Amino acid sequence: SAENIQISGKGYQNPLAGVAGWGETYMGATMASVLNGYEDPRISIYYSPATLTDHTEEYLGVPQGVYAKDGDPNYYQSYSFINTKTIAASTPAVLLTAAEVWLLRAEASLRGINPKSESAKQCYETGVQASFDQWGAGDASLYLASKGKPTDYINYAAGPGKDMKALITTTPDFDDAANQEEQLEKIITQKWIACWPEGMEAWTEQRRTGYPKLFKVQTNNSNGTIDTDIMIRRLPFSQDDAKKDPEQYKNLCTALGGADNGGTRLWWDTGKNNF
Q1: For 231-258, how does the pLDDT look when each residue is reduced to its tens digit (9 = 90+)?
Q2: Within this chain, do residues 184 and 121 fall inside the same structural domain, yes or no?
Q3: Staple 155 to which of 12, 48, 132, 162, CB 3.0 to 4.6 Å?
């Protein structure tokens, strides 16, 4: 982890710290489900406890695609905010971590393409420990033996009818007897956690493999262009650029192979990457 590739320098400000200054950077519902269920020690490093009455010192996440409560733009302001001591203005932006490399090697081993002939379990456990090392979370041995499962989501802010059953059932312990798909889910779920706070990287892995199984968006305003279950796959091309260079835009859409909206999969996002 001491060899992680990261950016800093003169005039640098961590971009996530800048966004956090707007007061809108909260823990997601899926992250809350996973970290709470796994009793993951990284939870207090990643986020601050909630301040919601009767739920202080708990870690509460915000579901994707929820409206702010009518008349109250701070509907979830008492939920768990990003830990600004961990991500401060001077915190380097991470591009590639040892944890990610080891978890890539775990997947490569699972697929039989790791030239070092390392076992998937060995790489997986080394990757999780590397993430623990990166964040000062201690020894991961007990965590890697855990059979804890993600918790169901209870939405205290929205009231009845907004709770969700956990979609993720995999556990931190790596079972050599499990089938390859189950092992892949473990690897990518831990990779998703270890990608924090690089959300774009985590989203890419989730689209590529389907893991982890995210809670569905609460409100779908796509007018049918994005499937609620499959969820958003890409960002549309800039309409400003499309107007400036319509011929190039036409070529881009042809190369895309589908409509220029958030529901069209990219070339590597085929839905057939698993076993």
Answers
A1: 999 999 999 989 999 999 999 999 999 9
A2: yes
A3: 162
